[in-house]
Amino acid sequence: MENATDALYIAFAVIIFVIALTITMVMFSRLGEVSGVAISSSDITEFYEYEGADINKANRTVGLETIIPTLYKYYKENYTVIFLKKDGTPLGLYNSETNRDLWGNGTNDNTGNIGKYYSSNSDYEKVCSFDVDEEITRHEPWTGTTEDYKNNLDAFLKGGKFNYPSDPSQVAYDYSRQLNNNGGFIGLCATNNYKFKEMLGEYNYNVETEGHESALLKNRKKRVIIYQLQS
Q1: How far apart, in whole angstroms, are the C-alpha atoms of residue 9 and residue 18?
Q2: According to a count of CB atoms within 10 Å of the terminal CB, is the N or C end of the chain lower?
Q3: How many CA atoms lie within 13 A of 67 on its CB side?
């Protein structure tokens, strides 16, 4: 009888231990989730909702040390990088030299596939952004591989030449001529001591997909990083 009582005590103690261990594990799990939320909320790379009216939401002032790594990620992570002048109008970076007739139904405004990020003056092909979707629609020559994207960025930043991947003997873009600066975008910023206000967010856009009877519009969100010239 005494042995049976001892056995019950031992069984009860084991049950209590298992319950306590389970509660402890759950508490540690919840603590990890809370820590993750706290870290996330302090991370500047968390993107805000972006609408045109919210463009003046400022995060920080940055230079090339921040912009260059960002540019080398845009084609890997498929987000948009936009450059603006101090007054908020597009800051033209280079002229697209592809055939505009092949750009599909894009227009020089916000209604088509092309034209969201171009200068508003007569030189409407002056591009102020890096955006994979738009570059593919424009048939830019670097959209074939990630290596081509990198090579194009190297040329843009340093003021070099990007040759057609299909014919390396032919120059597609001469960025020293495009930017009027032998040092490319890096030289342009360094010479003028440019600083930019960085704004982070996301925007909505429609994508046309062919349905059985007609084209369907699918609404999507895309991350955007805006650099507005400050000096």
Answers
A1: 14
A2: N
A3: 25
